[in-house]
Amino acid sequence: MLWLTTANVLDPIQAAFLDRMEVIRLSGYTLEEKLAIADRHLIPKQLREHGLAPDQLEFPERALRRIVDEWTRESGLRALEREIASVCRKVAVQVASGRKNRVAVGPRKIEKLLGTPRFLAEDLLERDRVGVATGLAWTATGGELMFVEALATPGKGQLQLTGQLGEVMKESAQAAFTYCRAWAERHGHPADFFTRHDLHVHLPAGAIPKDGPSAGITVAAAIVSLATGRRIDRKLAMTGEITLRGDVLPVGGLKEKLLAARAAGVRTVILPRLNRRDLAEIPARARKELDLLLVETMEEALERALLPAAGAPRPSPAHRKATRRQTARPKAARARPPRAARRRK
């Protein structure tokens, strides 16, 4: 006898029971996949079940996109089909009562039919800020942006963490804090900054539990930004674990994180170089629209995340483009043949 079960997360499953199971991990649908499935299967199915002809209800792609972004936040399609069915029911009532014979459901009309949106789209910061970095998080319903805020107050060098963080994330933040103290001393910044100030690191949306090691480099970037007074590019997001030596370690959920970054308008994402093998799972369209910077150390991440200090010259667009190309697609140096060999050839 073979039993097949499904689950969104594995944490609630007892370890002894999980050890006897074969786990097959399936990533969630992308936005493009959801739109295609809705157009080919979900909408025709709901039209039939509600007695509507295909020409009596028009679902533009923009309306479907809004339903996916603001009324459903899941890796599957169950909630999307439920919202489409709700729209079909209300349109069927209008058609049966003779008020309308054909309805085009545009992005604005969706809110009249479904009510207030359940989710707010993740927005980027309005401007580049000091001490605020944009991270990427994985959840059971997909990826999302995660902002990390750091603030210094007079004190004795204590670190305070808030935002309902789990033990793993707290340890990751502590490691980032220790690394930043060593980094500041190594780069000639005032050594007494960390001894005369208490640092408060906060992850907004405090009602939502957060855990995992992938925010390490984001916390470190926010703290270094605060200590140096240099702003962080608001259109840049990052994910990766950090060690006390400053190495950047790989993380999971890369596909969901990158799709969330792309949907929010992020242009550049810093990733661990060891996650290069996972890029094959990313849709080609998302890889094309994002500048993916693969780094091995926190030094590389800071070099690209921190904007120049006030009054310092900004790097030219050509220099930034060349740097990104070398970082994301490193190529082995090609040795020049000896002069005599070139002449014989």
Rough outline = elongated
CATH fold call of the largest domain: Ribosomal Protein S5, domain 2
Largest sheet: 7 strands, mixed
Strand order of the largest sheet: 5-6-4-3-7-10-11
Q: Strand percentage, roughly?
A: 15-25%
pLDDT under 50 segments (min length 5)?
Answer: 322-335, 337-345
* CATH classification class of the largest domain: Alpha Beta
How much is the radius of gyration in Å? 25 Å
How many distinct helices?
Answer: 13
- Structural class based on helices, strands and sheet pairing: alpha/beta
Distance between the termini: 70 Å
Number of domains: 2
Helix and strand element order: HHEHHEHEEEHHEHEEEHEHEHHH
**CATH architecture field of the largest domain:** 2-Layer Sandwich
Instruction: State mean pLDDT (0 to 100 scale).
Output: 84
The beta-strand count equals 11
General description of the model:
With 345 residues, the protein is an alpha/beta fold. The protein has two domains: 31-114, Orthogonal Bundle (Helicase, Ruva Protein, domain 3); 132-309 and 317-328, Ribosomal Protein S5, domain 2, CATH 3.30.230. Helices cover 41% and strands 15% of the residues. The protein has 13 helices and eleven strands. It has helices at 15-18, 31-49, 61-70, 78-96, 107-114, 167-186, 193-196, 216-228, 254-264, 284-289, 298-305, 317-328, 339-344; strands at 57-58, 103-104, 132-139, 142-154, 159-162, 197-202, 236-238, 241-242, 248-249, 268-272, 291-295. The strands form three sheets. It has a seven-stranded mixed β-sheet with strand order 5-6-4-3-7-10-11. α2 (31-49) crosses α3 (61-70) and α3 packs across α5 (107-114). The chain is elongated. Mean pLDDT is 84; it is low at 322-335 and 337-345.
